[in-house]
Design a protein that fits this description.
single chain, mainly alpha, two-stranded parallel ribbon, 9% strand, globular
Length: 117
C-alpha cells in the first residue's frame, strides 16, 4: 500500500498456497525497504495456510488479515484487481503465455505510467 505498486504476482490455473508464495517471493525480491512490513490479506485459505504463513515469517513480514469475508476490509487489493481487469486486461488471451505477457506489461504500466492519486 505504501508504494501503491504491484510488487508481486503469479498467474496460475489454481489458487494454491504455493502459487501465492511465488507472488510473495517476487515481492521480497523487489522489496525496497529494510523497515518492518505488514502484509494484509483476506482470509483465503491459501493465505491462512501453514506454507504461506511460514514464508511470511521467513521474509520478516507481519501478517494482518481481515476479520471476515467483507471485501471492503481489503478494499485496496480489490481496487487494484478491478483496475487491472477493467483498464488493462481488455481481451481474452488464447494462451497462458499470451496472458503472462499481457499481465507483465499491464503491471509495468500500472506501476510506472498510471498516475496514483
Amino acid at each position: 500500500a505504501y508504494s501503491r505498486k504491484i510488487m508481486g504476482y503469479e498467474l496460475s490455473h489454481e489458487m494454491k498456497a504455493s502459487d501465492v508464495v511465488k507472488a510473495l517471493d517476487m515481492t521480497v525480491k523487489s522489496r525496497q525497504t529494510t523497515g518492518q512490513i505488514i502484509h494484509h490479506s483476506d482470509r483465503g485459505m491459501q493465505y491462512c495456510s501453514e506454507e504461506y504463513q511460514m514464508a511470511l515469517a521467513a521474509s520478516g513480514m507481519t501478517p494482518s488479515m481481515t476479520d471476515g469475508y467483507d471485501c471492503y476490509q481489503n478494499a485496496l487489493a480489490e481496487r487494484v484487481n478491478g483496475i487491472l481487469k477493467h483498464e488493462f486486461l481488455l481481451y481474452r488471451c488464447r494462451t497462458m503465455e499470451e496472458l503472462r505477457a499481457l499481465v507483465k506489461e499491464s503491471v509495468a504500466i500500472y506501476n510506472e505510467l498510471r498516475p496514483h492519486l
